[in-house]
Amino acid sequence: MRIDIVTIFPDFFGVLDVSLLGRARRERLLELGVHDLRDWTHDRHRTVDDTPYGGGAGMVMRPEPWGEALDALLPEGEDADAVVVFPTPAGVPFTQALARELASERRIVFACGRYEGIDARVAEHAATRARVLEVSLGDYVLNGGEVAAMAMIEAIGRLVPGVVGNPESLVEESHEAGLLEHPSYTKPQVWRGHEVPEVLRSGNHAAIAAWRHEQALERTRRVRPDLLPPEVETR
Ligand code: 6GU
């Protein structure tokens, strides 16, 4: 998979050199290109924003540098199967299901906006060249798309085959079964008076699986009831 990122803060993405994704890049499982939007400006001040039509607070990113950036990364007639992701709090929710879907793409471009967003015509025009997704990390506001893109790239990248060493660890985690994950324990058996639940030391695999499922269900009911199907009335 190849991922390109367009941003006015290319330095943000230095962290993608470390840890799991850094190794994936060195092993060529993941190709990553980080591009400075200002490279596609032509004025002395390398201007990327302007005041909003219709008035209001803040600045809006001008369409011209974005148009040139996307032209350069997605030349007309090529990469018709690319996906362009615009991180925005006004987008569709980013979920594990969307991460899975994007992990099977060949080419993704992240267009990271700042300020009050990017002129809406940029996404409109990009949609004539590629599949466009406006995606939100959750119901809160970040200063720009960079941190959101990073989170999405990590969630997507670790689902690319070969990036995570033991693929079984991907199956058992939170959100894959529609439930939050059960609690985990390691040695020592007693720590500061807190004991590891007996069942986990029983060697009874069926009992362990049942306990973990019950814990996952209880935790999901308690902290994320919205993830569960509507309660069925019983009597
Ligand atoms: Cl994707 N962008 C910004 N700027 N803020 C957000 C977000 C994205 N998701 C949640 N908040």
From TrEMBL:
Instruction: Output a single Gene Ontology CC term carried by this record.
Output: cytosol
Keyword Transcription regulation tagged: no
Q: Which residues form the tRNA methyltransferase TRMD/TRM10-type domain?
A: 1-228
Against InterPro entries, the record matches this protein to:
Alpha/beta_knot_MTases, tRNA_m1G_MeTrfase_C_sf, tRNA_m1G_MeTrfase_TrmD, tRNA_m1G_MTases_N, tRNA_MeTrfase_TRMD/TRM10
Q: What is its EC number?
A: 2.1.1.228
Residues reported to bind S-adenosyl-L-methionine: G113, L137, G138, D139, Y140, V141, L142
Task: Give the GO biological process terms.
Answer: tRNA N1-guanine methylation
Q: What is this protein called?
A: tRNA (guanine-N(1)-)-methyltransferase
Species this chain originates from: Agrococcus baldri
Designated gene of the protein = trmD
